Amino acid sequence: MKYYTVIVVKIDAFESQIVNERHFGNYEDAEEFSRNVPQGTACMIAELKSPLI
Hints:
The chain is an alpha+beta fold. It has one domain. It contains 1 helix and 3 strands. Strands 2-1-3 form a 3-stranded antiparallel sheet, with helices on one face. The relative contact order is 0.38. This is DUF1330 domain-containing protein.
């Protein structure tokens, strides 16, 4: 089973901060969420697989 995690990072001159992290069951939902993140943030989508399979 696969799922997707979207991590939103606020980048600053001195340090970065994770401001949001969401999990989705499919890539399309994760990508749509990433398109709507606030200005001034970076977004990363990671595909995760269950270790039990």
